[in-house]
Amino acid sequence: MVNIEQERAKAAFEFAKDSSKAYGSYVKKAPMYILNNGLTNFLAFAYSKRKDANWNKLYNDIKKWFAEKDKQMLIKVKLTGNNEEFVSVIANLSDEELRIVTDETLAVLSWLRRFVKSEE
Length: 120
Fold this sequence. Notes:
By secondary structure, this protein is mainly alpha-helical. It has a single domain, classed as Peroxidase, domain 1. Helices cover 72% and strands 0% of the residues. The protein contains six helices and no strands.
């Protein structure tokens, strides 16, 4: 039986495959940005910078994690089929749901930081 930490590690390893050193630098800075500014602000910033391939990848990796977890009902983040953007879904969560999603995002980023290459 696979536990949640193993699932996070597996997903992070897949996200880190073929990633650039610049992406690694973004991943390593992301947790502090989230802690200082909040998950919604972080995702809004990453969304606004999505023309940069590394920001786009980080945003989409976090989105992909929650899309997969929602199917397993681990966290009830509703990614609807009406093209509602992920950051919009996050912005409309209750305080409790946002806390859960923030904690889960930080946990996935913790694993991702272990696998990425960085410029540092």
